[in-house]
Design a protein that fits this description.
By secondary structure, this protein is of the alpha+beta class. Helices cover about 50% and strands about 10% of the residues. A hairpin with a 2-residue loop joins strand 5 and strand 6. Helix 9 crosses helix 10. The longest helix has 24 residues. The termini are far apart. The relative contact order is 0.18.
Length: about 400
């Protein structure tokens, strides 16, 4: 069997591949891109939820310990809250959970809306704009940079390095971006330590500098880098995917335009329909484990696919149809499940919801500027998102 991730067509439309894998088995052993490594790919909904809570490890350092590698990924990226298990993960997550509570996100909503209005306020009816470059990309990175206290002049560089980190297969580019981001955040931490402010980064520094806590300098840096990257990259994809889905379903677009109070409820179905996190970050099996009746061998890397699970017909009837009235849409796992469920889910939802509201209010006649089949998708196994979204206002 060839790798399901090897063909360019997978990155344009991965759902036929997911359907074929799931039809064979919801838990399947497949080769990765170069064929040397056999991985477990989880595409079924029930199996995916089970995998998210199974005794699988996210400690990638332990997984790669006995494997030869010429990678030079910066430790702040290679070992973060995403790549450790409890109790270390529990402690790190506790330190940042308060930053993304519903109350704190609700307090940000006026700021997010003002940003969205600011970006679309530069446009006029009849304009052709790249929605990824001019709205879906800059808005989430501006929000997370504002939270962390990143100066406005540095935000374009942050976005560029973050994009490079998700360049599947280009190890040199990924590694270089990891060092650039870590180097920048090291300098920013030093600046915030010298001149404290009210940013989230300053709060984390205060936690680090409290001798009663166990947060190390390396953990501080890795948390800062993780929040910076995870705080916007997938939200950019989520906004782009949602807007494209509505443009391709004009009846639904018109419904939300005339009934904007329905937008919050529609966000769940949009996230289910085209999940920005298509394949979750690496897990592996320290010991053999059973997932939905299939055996995962000891030592196997495991890739859980929310993008596939969210189109499992056993959970979501007629899953390839966008249905804004779908009764169980909220049971999607676009944000994951279990202890590693996306910490920033409330913020991401708010950003998608607010952007859709502002966009449909200002430009109700939104259309694609090019045929849908000409749209370019990012070549990223993890993120399902557009390179560009040219629209006519």
């Amino acid at each position: 069997m060839t790798s399901p991730f090897a063909e360019p067509a997978f990155y344009t439309d991965r759902y036929p591949t997911y359907a074929a894998l799931r039809a064979t088995s919801p838990v399947l052993q497949v080769p990765l891109e170069h064929g040397a490594t056999i991985a477990t790919v989880v595409t079924g909904y029930d199996a995916a939820r089970q995998a998210f809570t199974a005794p699988l490890s996210k400690n990638t350092g332990a997984y790669f310990a006995d494997k030869r590698s010429n990678r030079s990924l910066h430790p702040a990226v290679a070992r973060s809250m995403l790549t450790v298990d409890p109790p270390e993960h529990t402690r790190l997550r506790r330190l940042v959970t308060k930053a993304f509570t519903p109350a704190r996100v609700n307090a940000l909503r006026p700021y997010i809306r003002s940003l969205a209005e600011q970006f679309v306020g530069l446009w006029e009816p009849g304009d052709e704009v790249n929605l990824v470059e001019e709205l879906a990309g800059p808005l989430p990175v501006t929000v997370i940079c504002q939270l962390l206290g990143v100066p406005p002049s540095d935000r374009d560089a942050i976005r560029s390095w973050s994009t490079d980190l998700f360049a599947s297969g280009d190890h040199q580019r990924i590694d270089a971006a990891s060092h650039a981001l870590a180097g920048y955040m090291t300098e920013l931490i030093a600046a915030k330590r010298a001149h404290p402010d009210h940013s989230l980064l300053a709060d984390l520094i205060a936690v680090h500098d409290d001798d009663a806590d166990r947060l190390s300098e390396g953990e501080l840096l890795s948390l800062a880098v993780l929040l910076l990257v995870a705080g916007h990259e997938t939200t950019t994809a989520g906004i782009g995917n949602a807007v494209l889905a509505l443009i391709l379903h004009p009846v639904d677009l018109k419904h939300l335009r005339t009934s904007p109070h329905c937008i919050p409820g529609a966000v769940d179905e949009l996230l289910r329909y085209d999940s920005p996190v298509s394949i979750a970050t690496l897990r592996w099996a320290p010991d053999a484990v059973d997932l939905s009746g299939s055996q995962v061998p000891s030592g196997s890397p495991v890739f859980v696919c929310p993008g596939a699970a969210n189109r499992d017909p056993l959970r979501f009837p007629d899953p390839d149809r966008l249905d804004l009235d779908r009764a169980n849409a909220a049971s999607h796992i676009a944000f994951g499940h279990g202890i590693h469920r996306c910490l920033g889910a409330p913020l991401a939802r708010a950003e998608v919801e607010i952007v859709l509201g502002v966009l449909l209010e200002r430009f109700p006649g939104l259309q694609l500027a090019i045929p849908a089949e000409q749209l370019a998708w990012r070549r990223s196994r993890l993120v399902r998102g557009l390179e560009a979204l040219p629209v006519r206002l």
